[in-house]
Amino acid sequence: MHPATRKAIYRRLQAANADPTTELLYTSPFELLVAVMLSAHTTDKSVNTATRKLFPVANTPEAILELGIEGVKPYLKTVGLYNAKSKNLIGLCRQLIEQHGGNVPDTRESLEALPGVGRKTASVILNMVFGQVEIAVDTHIFRVANRTGLAPGRTPRAVEDALTRNTPDEFKKNAHHWLLLHGRYVCTARLPACPKCIIRDLCEYPHKTRPPALKHSDAPIAHNSKRRSPIRLK
Ligand code: SF4
To answer: Which of 128, 156, 173 is the last residue of a domain?
Structure first.
């Protein structure tokens, strides 16, 4: 993709949503860490359903540790893989207390050493809490980067490296959110809503959805003409 095209894509995404952020609900770095960790292989909506109940009861490492694995399970039942995540959550709280004074650490190494925290979660925390320019790649971003031609790659890490290399500096901080939202609401997995996509003339995907097929699209924007792309979060 030509650098000018890449820049034009980000400019449009920025114009549609100048201040993107996560759809996960949180009020502190610790709550964000827990929410992002829980969001692996499940939807933000199911995580929010769980944390809406959990955080009013316990929203510090100490309070959650006190609940214990069996104590957090009832709160996490809406979340996929909640048995394993309950165990990880308690391990994460214990490690934060024992090794970081109950605070969220600010290095990738320390974050990735926490139970249940992988590269993507660490990147989100480094970006959103500590202002570091990191582009976390999830399933939506992987798909959008490949389809559009923004940053083709066979693995999430290859896409992340390509995005880090190719994204103009001015867009790096928000690239993760723009691409994630675009993938979630417009450029969906099964049948993207290309006729309603604000970057369709810039996107290099050769198999764009044609207007007659739009009604079959799994993209929320395909069925809501008032929505712009990407959807605002709050
Ligand atoms: S034109 Fe279609 S394939 Fe390209 S980014 Fe938009 S929705 Fe995705």
So the answer is: 128
